[in-house]
Every structure is written in structure tokens, then in C-alpha cells.
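Entry 14. Structure prediction run on the chain below.
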Amino acid sequence: YAVSTIGDNGLIGEMSAPVRATPAYEITSATLLSQAEQTPVVLRYDLAVSVEALVTIEGVTGGDTPVSGILAQASLVPADELPDNAPWVALESREASAEGDLYTGTLRPVQPGEYTVTVRFSADAGETWIYASSEAPLTVEAPHDTEAPTTPANFAVTRAAPGTVVLNWNAADAENVRAYLVYRDGALVAEIRENSYTDTTAVEGATYTYSVAAVDAAYNVSDQATTNPVFIERGKIAVTFLVNVPPTTNSDVYIAGDLGSAEYPLWDPAGVVLAPAGENQWAVTLQFSEGVNIVYKFVRGGWEAVEKGENCEEIADRSLSINLDQLGEPLEDGTYVVEHTVAKWRDLDGCP
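Output returned:
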């Protein structure tokens, strides 16, 4: 917020220094309902710690539904770290009760050590937190198996386009490999069981480096396989337009429209010519940026010779989305073929 004065002449004076305020409830209490096991547990891939916690706001909780706007998180805080430096996981709101709103979640230890199960709640978008911790520490012991899996082999980027970066690698030979950890620029983005991953959040014009590691049943992690830096740009796709034309065709055939690039003329009836490709067939191969949408018609050098429908009716502009999942299977050289049929020509087939 900021304030200023308004003079008798209606002019607004200088603005004050701004102040900030976040409307929020005052949390009365936070309670960790689930307590850590007091006996040591051995680290393994499927080791999970269930968390249940209750938050109470006097005069607000206790209704039929959980209070909105509450941030709830949980963490396994190492014995030698402060809570603020620990990794936090969001808890899910489960139900409202007379005692408060219940939140639940799961924590997964990834290395041996002594931890305190801790939850925290905020009603002011994370500006302040109220904490609750387990009474006894959780001790996670190292497994007897300490041999890490081999590094995933043949890790490669097979496609790098905005919203679609496809990563592939060889499946691990070891029977006890449970998952793969995928990183982008050093940050974990996925933990999966398959030996491929698609990054759907890649942004055009950005450069990323990807890595992958294997994890076995004892949570031993292999060395990472890493790609070279990957620049994200729209790929070029070759599309061949194969056009079947009436036997009356007696001059060159063109494709005219908005072809998604300044490389091609805009709705020029004599701009992009096709070549004969067989009896009553014409064809042309054009390059398009992946993801563009194009509209077009076939014409013979002028709009008086544009294509018409079977009954000489006007036909709607043809359209095509340049996406791999909509173009079908490519030829061996990677070119996609789109086939069309021109029923009649305006000037040759008696069409008005």
C-alpha cells in the first residue's frame, strides 16, 4: 500500500514509500500425529514414512471443509541441519474435524542418517511458519549392499523441440534396478521406471543439459550419464503434397495459402509450383517448422482457375497441422506425404 496527498487544485502529491501486508489467519497450533519409528530402519528404495498432521486456527477450523489458503509441508530434517535448509514436500488436505484440519503425505529417505520428522504450516503464503516435530528421531541405517548400479548406457536426446524433449537410454541389466533419476540442469525432474522420458516443459530458445542415473533396491545410485547442452528449437519437417487432378488439367498446378513462413508467398496463386509426378498427379515437397498450422488451396496460376468441389461448389480452405503425431508415418527419408484430390477446376470444368 502507498498514500499520497491531493491538493485543493486536484493535483496528486508525491507517493509515500510502499508497505506490504498479506491478509492471513493466525495459526493457533500445529500437531504431528504420526511419530517416527524408534527402532533403526535400513535404507531401501521403497522405504516410506507416512505423515499425518493437524493444524488448528481458533474460530476458523472445525467446520465442514478444510480452510483454504493454508500451506502444509513435511520434511525429514537431518540432525545437523536447520529446518529451513531441509527439502520440503507438500502435504495434502484430507478432512476437517472438530480438532482441526488433517493433512497427510509421505516422505522418502534417500541416504543413511538420523532425521527428525517435521511439519510446518503457513497461512500467509510462506512468509511465516509454525512447526511441529517428532519426539524421537528416525534413524536410517546404511544397507549391506553398497554397490551402485552401472551408469545407464547410450543416453541420448532423440528429439529436442519446444515442449517435447525425448530422452532414451538402455535399460539396466541388473535385476535389482528399481528406477531412474532424470535431471535437467542438475535439478531432479523425474523418478521413473521406464528407460525413456519426455520433458514437456522445455522452452523454445533455452539450452538445457540432461542427466540420468539408475537406482537399485538398496537406494544405491549410479554415476550419471549426461548429454551435451541441448538447444531447444522448432525442428524442420519435410512434407510432400501429392495432388490428384482432373484429366482436363492443362497447365501448371500451384499451392497457394498461408504456409506458416515468410519463405513462402502469402496466398499467391502463382507462387509455389508443383511438378508432374505421374499421370494426373502433381507434387511438391516443402519444409515447415514443427507446430505451425497452415491453410491452402490448389490453383493453376490465377484465382479464375482455382479448385472447386465435386458439384462445382466452393470448398473451404484446406488445413494442416505440422505435428508428428498427426502426419502419420514418414517415408524412409523422413518425409511425410499428404495426398489430396482436386475434383474440378473453375475454368475447365464448367464451374461458375
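The CA atoms of residues 31 and 172 lie 43 Å apart.
Filed with the rest of this week's runs.
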